[in-house]
Amino acid sequence: MSNVVRVGVAALAACLLIETGAALAASADNGKKVYMAVGCWGCHGTVGQGGVTGPKLAPEPLPYEAFSAFVRTTNRAMPPYREPVLSNSDLADIHAYLEAQPKAADHKTIPLLNQ
Predict the structure, then answer these.
(1) 64-90: buried (b, 16+ CB within 10 Å) or exposed (e) per residue?
(2) What is the dihedral sign for C-alpha 83, 86, 89, 93?
(3) Which residue, among 30, 99, 43, 100, has the nearest Cα to 67 in the 3D structure?
């Protein structure tokens, strides 16, 4: 294996570790604050449940890498949120907030719906 390939593989591994580490160290509490502050709630609902203009994001958001790529580069109705507007750590925190949302109860566990 050439030195160039080794350096490239090492750099890729470091990037993956940094991204994974950012997602693992994320704060759902801060994510809620940032989600509200930057206005995500206006389209996606206060807990990511979806709304008239924005799709459902929680409780099972896209994997972090896909979520981050979409938020940064979207050219759809949602404006892209580049890093100067929304830091990588804040984006990871928003993702953690969305992941922390509880799933809805299974309809089979709601007595009134099973009569």
Answers:
(1) beebbeebeeeeeeeeebeeeebeeeb
(2) negative
(3) 99
CATH of domain 3-104: 1.10.760.10
**Domain segments of the chain: what residues?**
3-104
Instruction: Give the model confidence (pLDDT) of 88-98 as tens digits.
Output: 999 999 999 99
Residue 109 predicted with pLDDT over 50: yes
What is the H or E stretch that residue 32 is in? helix 28-37
- pLDDT, tens digit (0-9, with 9 covering 90-100), for 30-77: 999 999 999 999 999 999 999 999 999 999 999 999 999 999 999 888
